[in-house]
Design goal:
Elements lengths: L2 H17 L8 H20 L15 H13 L3 H27 L1 H13 L1 H4 L8 H15 L6 H17 L7 H10 L19 H29 L26 H16 L2 H8 L4 H20 L15 H5 L4 E2 L2 E2 H19 L3 H18 L11 H19 L5 H24 L3
Antiparallel strand pairs: 1-2
Length: about 450
């Protein structure tokens, strides 16, 4: 059984049920499509070949909307056909995650992992609506697997630079992905003793090898920085002017500024999605007792980090502070103290502990790349005032997929039956969160 083909079939079945059914999907994602993304696509289509990019009713870069506008201008398809076309980004993303995992650890765990990516609340809506996030996340995933590979030639840097350029033209916040391009330039293409450490000793620095690679990586990311700099100049800020003030767009939200609760949200999302999907790490610890000490130490450190970030700032529901939707909605129904949510604190500690244990069983190069990737992503997302779970769920699943796959492959084990049961329970949980709203219009 080919895991990626099963995921594609599941994605097409979801699209058929929602888009070819007698009703129409409901929920906040539909409001976003109708009030913002579809409006901008139609406006750009009417303005081609010279669309006005200095201000428009979306907070992201215009690449996705321009691509869809060209389709509208040339073919003028019905809305559901345009939705189907856009939804293939989400289907392809989930299928590529399933394929990458299956090649390395087998179909048993890769299939539920791919389905989790497809059905998670923030991605299922992307498969059936005119929304730009799936196109950006597909490029993030392709960049990540490039980084986790072993190639470091000029073709690698050219491919990474092109993908990063396309990525920031869809969503400018993903400029953070330049950080892991730089990291792979510094660390090099392979694991060699202690030489893959981020800060090697002077006797193993090998600057003659590292600095040219780092320079090539930096050059590859320059076009993306130039594009984001141009958009910043055009808008007078990180997002179009209408989204830099509360009254800019009716129904819109301010996205400039920052949100110090985002690190707690990221770790909480790991705490929500990780316990069952990351069970194969226990299989690794069972057959590799030599890794248990480091895994335990890093797990303890992760729990402490989760506690600190969840108590350092307010973590209860507050729409004006950008803490709303998803987990934030649940905090208003559960106990808290001094504006600190017990739910967020508990999930953050679980998420931190899971990440620490998983990083403890990885090879050091992979540990540095994935931890650095997560830190860069969290820092960049913290610059957005809106700490929405839909902005972090896909990245959390990417890290889970990469960490588990790398750990299991390194130990030479296959996920056991009981860990696969856990993964399918996780997929069921994900589907129960995301599908009711999308399928409600079908009934």
């Amino acid at each position: 059984m080919n895991a990626s083909l099963v995921v594609v079939a599941a994605g097409w079945l979801l699209q058929a049920a929602v888009l070819l059914g007698p009703g129409d999907p409901i929920g906040p994602a539909v409001v976003d499509e109708r009030a913002f993304h579809r409006v901008v696509i139609d406006r750009f289509a009417s303005e081609l070949p010279r669309p006005e990019l200095s201000d428009y009713a979306v907070a992201s870069a215009p690449g996705y909307h321009l691509a869809m506008a060209v389709v509208v201008r040339v073919f003028d398809p019905p809305l559901d056909v345009l939705r189907l076309l856009s939804g293939q980004f989400a289907v392809l993303l989930a299928a590529s995650v399933a394929w990458w995992c299956a090649v390395r650890v087998g179909v048993g765990w890769a299939l539920p992992m791919g389905l989790a990516v497809l059905l998670v609340d923030s991605m299922a809506s992307q498969a059936v609506l005119l929304l730009p996030e799936a196109a950006a996340w597909l490029l993030v995933w392709l960049l990540l697997v490039q980084v986790l590979g072993r190639a470091c030639g000029w073709r690698t840097w050219a491919a990474m630079g092109a993908m990063l350029l396309a990525l920031v033209f869809v969503r400018q916040v993903h400029l953070w992905a330049a950080a892991f391009v730089w990291m792979v330039g510094w660390l090099g293409p392979k694991e060699v003793g202690g030489e893959d450490r981020l800060m090697p000793g002077l006797d193993e620095l090998r600057a003659g090898e590292r600095l040219p690679r780092l320079g090539a990586a930096a050059l590859a990311t320059l076009p993306a920085f130039g594009l984001v700099g141009w958009m910043f100049w055009l808008w007078g800020g990180p997002v179009p002017p209408s989204f830099q003030q509360p009254e800019g767009v009716p129904g819109g939200s301010v996205h400039s500024g920052g949100n110090a609760a985002t690190p707690a949200l990221v770790l909480s999302t790991f705490g929500m999605l990780g316990p069952l999907l990351m069970l194969p790490v226990l299989d690794v610890l069972r057959v590799r007792p030599d890794l248990r000490g480091r895994a335990a130490r890093l797990a303890g450190l992760g729990v402490c980090v989760g506690l600190v970030v969840s108590l350092a700032v307010a973590t209860v529901y507050d729409r004006d502070a950008g803490r709303w939707t998803g987990l934030w909605d649940q905090t208003s129904r559960l106990p808290s103290f001094a504006d600190r949510s017990l739910l967020i604190a508990g999930l953050s500690m679980v998420g931190g502990g899971l990440l620490g244990a998983a990083f403890g069983v990885l090879a050091s190069r992979d540990r540095l790349l994935l931890s650095g990737t997560l830190l860069a992503f969290t820092a960049a997302q913290s610059a957005n005032q809106q700490a929405w779970i839909r902005y972090v769920e896909p990245m959390v699943l990417f890290v889970i997929a990469a960490v588990v796959t790398k750990a299991v492959r390194r130990a030479g084990v296959r996920p056991s039956g009981w860990t696969l049961v856990g993964a399918w329970i996780a997929v069921t949980f994900v589907a129960l969160r995301s599908l009711p709203d999308l399928l409600a219009g079908v009934r």
